[in-house]
Amino acid sequence: MISRRLLRIKAMKALYAHIKSESDSLAASEKTLVASIDKTYDLYFQMLSLIAEVARYAESRQEMAKQKKLPTFEDLNPNRKFVDNSVIALIANSDSVNDYVAAKKLSWSHSPELVKTLYSQLEQSDYYQKYMLSEEHSFREDLALVHDFYTHELEESELLEDVLDEQSILWNDDLGFALIMVERTLSNMRVSHEEVKVVEKFKSEDDLLFAKELFTKAALGFEDSVALIEKYTSNWDVERIAFMDNVILALAITELTAFSSIPVKVTLDEYIEISKFYSTPSSSTFINGILDRIVAALNAEGKIKKSGRGLL
Among the listed ranges 147-151, 165-169, 180-184, which one has the minimum average pLDDT value? Predict the structure, then answer.
C-alpha cells in the first residue's frame, strides 16, 4: 500500500510545482497530485510483472537454441528451473495482476534491451547459478530466487531508471516505494495460494483525502506559513533559504495545525526525514531547529489542537 510518507512527498512535489508555476487553478494541481499517486500504484504492478517478462525472455532463448542447425545436448535439454519457477508462474498467471496491467495498458514490450540486460545480469549472479545447480525443487527456493532478483538487480539499475523515466515522468523517485510493495506481495505468498494477493492501494480510505487536504490547505495558507517561517528565521539570510525548505515547512505547519489526529512527533519526524532527500544537505538541521521554535509558538497560542491518536 502507498505509505503516508509517500503521500506527503507527493503533496510536497505538487505544492512546489503549484507555487512555482503561479497557477491559479488548485483543482488542476490537485488532479495532477491524484494522477501522480495513481501512477505509483501502476508502477507497483509494472514492477511485479517484470520477473515474468524476464522468464519469458529466458524461455524464448531456450526455444531459439533448439532451432539451431546443430543444437548441442544442452540446447535440446535446457535447465528449465528458472523458466518453470512456481512463484514466477503464479505472478504470470495471476488474474489480479494481468487484469490490472491490461486495464492500465502497462507493458515491457517496448523495453527489450532492459529485459535482455536484466536476464544477463541475473545469469551471471552467484545466487542464480547456485539456484540453477541446486537439486532442490521447492516453493521456498523459488521464492528466494525472486526475492533476490528484486533485491539485487533493480534498485541500482540506471537502465531501468531511464526506461521508467521514458514511460512516465510521474514515476520519478517512485521505484523504491514500488519495490517495497512488491516485496510485501512476495512475503505474503504461500505454496497453497492459487492467486497473487496484491497489496491494496491505501491502508485506509482516509489516505487519499489526507493527501488532497494536505496539499490544498498548504497551498491556500502558503503565504501565511511563509510569514511565520520568516518570523523565526530572522537571523538567517532569507535569500539562502532553499525554496524547497519553505515548501516542506509549510506542509509541516499545515499538518500541525489542521490534522488533529496526527501526533506532533510524527509530523516533525516525517518532514525532517523528507528534507534529507529532497532539499540541501543542511536542510534537515535547519528544518528541525525552525520547527522546534514554531511548534513552541503555536502551542503557546493554542493553534495546535490534537485529539485521539494525535495526543500520543
Answer: 165-169
Please give the pLDDT value at position 272: 95
Residue at grid coordinates 485506509: 204
| Cα–Cα distance measured from residue 278 to residue 300, given in angstroms and rounded to the nearest whole number | 30
Query: What is the reported pLDDT for 16?
Result: 96
Three-state SS string across the chain, please?
CCCHHHHHHHHHHHHHHHHHHCCCCHHHHHHHHHHHHHHHHHHHHHHHCHHHHHHHHHHHHHHHHHCCCCCCHHHHCCCCCCCCCHHHHHHHCCHHHHHHHHHCCCCCCCCHHHHHHHHHHHHHCHHHHHHHHCCCCCHHHHHHHHHHHHHHCCCCCHHHHHHHHHHCHHHCCCHHHHHHHHHHHHHCCCCCCCCCCCCCCCCCCHHHHHHHHHHHHHHHCHHHHHHHHHHCCCCCCHHHCCHHHHHHHHHHHHHHHHCCCCCHHHHHHHHHHHHHHHCCCCHHHHHHHHHHHHHHHHHHCCCCCCCHHHHC
Q: CATH topology for 221-311?
A: N-utilizing Substance Protein B Homolog; Chain A (1.10.940)
Of the candidates 25, 20, 38, 6, the one whose C-alpha atom is nearest the C-alpha of residue 170 is 38
pLDDT at 163 over 80: yes
Domain map (residue ranges) of the chain: 4-187, 221-311
Question: In the structure grid, which three cell numbers stand for residue 289, read together?
Answer: 531547529
Contact 279, 245 (CB under 8 A): yes
pLDDT value of position 236 = 66
